[in-house]
Amino acid sequence: MKINAASQSTCPRCGAVKLPHHVCGNCGFYKDREVIVVE
After folding, report:
1. Considering only CA atoms, which of 30, 13, 12 is closest in space to residue 21?
2. C-alpha span between 2 and 28 (Å, rounded)
């Protein structure tokens, strides 16, 4: 058995590395809408 590393994608809005299908922790956006306010 082998554990694979989680895949990564880049945020189209800010370019930060994030997990696919998750809110970007850098800018707070998911699918072109603001989900969380990041200061």
Report:
1. 30
2. 33
Q: Distance (Å, rounded) from C-alpha 36 to C-alpha 2?
A: 35
pLDDT tens digits for range 1-39: 899 988 999 999 999 999 999 999 999 999 989 999 988
Contact between 13 and 26 (Cβ < 8 Å): no
pTM over 0.85: no
Tallying the residues shown for the chain, one arrives at: 39
Do the Cβ atoms of 14 and 24 come closer than 8 Å? yes
Instruction: Name every residue whose Cβ is closer than 8 Å to that of residue 3 and which is 6 or more positions away in sequence.
Output: none
